[in-house]
Design a protein that fits this description.
With 127 residues, this protein is mostly helical. It has 6 helices and no strands. The longest helix has 28 residues.
Length: 127
């Protein structure tokens, strides 16, 4: 790794490339399914169906309770990680009430984490 750094430490970017890198990423609209997911998530947060500091409020209990102990531990860890991202979404939403680029990325993160886990373990979460 050090050799790569030494090779490029004095490199200068072409001004056109640097200018392009300095441009903010464009905020494309959310895909329809992600937009519906965000609306559902915000609704559950506003109705207090999900408590962003209590990961167990994410569980679809009938499914979660049927998991083995090791699968429940994995579901617990995933829920904790999901809630960390959901709290970020909630904070940004409360500040902006817009589907900003940051929220779009966070929604994609929650979507992917949830989907990958549920592919293996069933519909464990209520989101």
């Amino acid at each position: 790794m050090r050799n790569v750094y030494k090779m490029f430490k004095d490199a200068v970017l072409d001004p056109k490339v640097q200018q392009k890198l300095n441009q903010p990423l464009s905020a494309d609209k959310l895909a329809k399914d992600h937009e519906e997911f965000l609306d559902m998530l915000i609704g559950k947060l506003e109705r207090k169906e999900i408590d962003p500091v209590n990961a167990s409020t994410l569980y679809n209990r009938p499914v979660y309770d049927k998991l083995s102990e090791s699968e429940q531990e994995k579901a617990d860890l995933t829920a904790i990680n999901l809630m960390g991202v959901i709290r970020q979404i909630e904070r940004l939403w409360n500040l902006e009430h817009s589907k900003s680029f940051q929220i779009q990325n966070l929604v994609e993160t929650v979507w992917q984490m949830k989907s990958k886990f549920e592919e293996l373990h069933g519909d464990v979460y209520i989101i």
